[in-house]
Amino acid sequence: MAVIVVSGTGTEIGKTVVTAALAAAARAQGRTVAVLKPAQTGLAHGEPGDADEVVRLAGDAVTGVELARFPEPLAPATAARRAGLPPVRPHDVATAAAELAVEYDLVLVEGAGGLLVRFDDDGATLADAARLLEAPVLVVTPAGLGTLNSTALTAEALRARGIEMLGIVVGSWPGDPGLAERCNLTDLPEVAAGAPLLGVVPEGAGALEPAEFRSRATTWLAPRLGGTWCP
C-alpha cells in the first residue's frame, strides 16, 4: 500500500504546497495519485479547499478527495462540535485511504495543522490514522527560529507511537535565508533523530502558474520522493 501521511509542526507552513509537489513529482514518473483531506476547516461548502489546491497545482490527473468540511477555522474536533456535525474518526481516514490505494499508485493524506490536532472529542489524531494505515509520516516544517523544537517534538511523538517518520521537508524556504535558516538545514535531521531532510520548497511556490509549478516540483524534492534535490 503506497500511502504517505503529510503532517506538519503547525498550521500555515506549506503542507498543501508540499503535498502538491509530491503529487506532481509522482505524476512526472507516470504514477497515478490521489490526495485525501480528512477534515477541511475554515471554508464554506463550494469554496475550493486544500485538496482542490493540490489538484490545481499538480494537474487534473490527480484525484482530490475530502471526507468532511467544517466552516469555522478551528481544530477539526472543535469545528465539528460547533457545527453540530459528526467528526472524522481515524478509522474513517484509514478506510478511505486504503480504498484509494487499491486504485491509485500513491495516496497522499494531508492532515490539518500539526500531528496531534484532535479529530474528535475522544482525542483521536492524524497519528492514530497513520498507525492504523501503517503508513509513514512526512513532516513539513518551517525554516526559521523555533522549527528545531517543534520538529523534535513531532519526531518524539511519532517514535512514541511506533510510527515511521519518512523525513522532513521545509515548506517555505526564503529567497534570502538568514543564519538561523541556513543552520537549521543542518540541524533538522539531528533533532529529528536522524530522519532525513527530503526537500526544500521555495517561498511563494504556491503562487506559480500550475505548469511552472509542475515543471519545477521535482527540483525541490529528494530522489526518495521522486525528485532531484540534494541537501
UniProtKB/TrEMBL annotation:
What EC numbers are recorded for this enzyme? 6.3.3.3
Key words, A-Z: ATP-binding, Biotin biosynthesis, Cytoplasm, Ligase, Magnesium, Metal-binding, Nucleotide-binding
Where does the chain bind substrate? 41
Kindly list the positions annotated as binding ATP: 12-17, 50, 110-113, 171-172, 202-204
Tell me what reaction this enzyme catalyses: (7R,8S)-7,8-diammoniononanoate + CO2 + ATP = (4R,5S)-dethiobiotin + ADP + phosphate + 3 H(+)
Q: In which pathway does it act?
A: Cofactor biosynthesis; biotin biosynthesis; biotin from 7,8-diaminononanoate: step 1/2
Give the principal location in a single coarse category: cytoplasm
Q: Does the keyword Ion transport apply?
A: no
Cellular localisation: Cytoplasm
Q: Locate the active site.
A: 37
Q: What class of enzyme is it?
A: ligase
Question: What does the UniProt function comment say about this protein?
Answer: Catalyzes a mechanistically unusual reaction, the ATP-dependent insertion of CO2 between the N7 and N8 nitrogen atoms of 7,8-diaminopelargonic acid (DAPA, also called 7,8-diammoniononanoate) to form a ureido ring.
State the family named in the UniProt similarity comment for this chain.
Belongs to the dethiobiotin synthetase family.
Assembly and partners are described as: Homodimer.
Report the protein name in the record: ATP-dependent dethiobiotin synthetase BioD
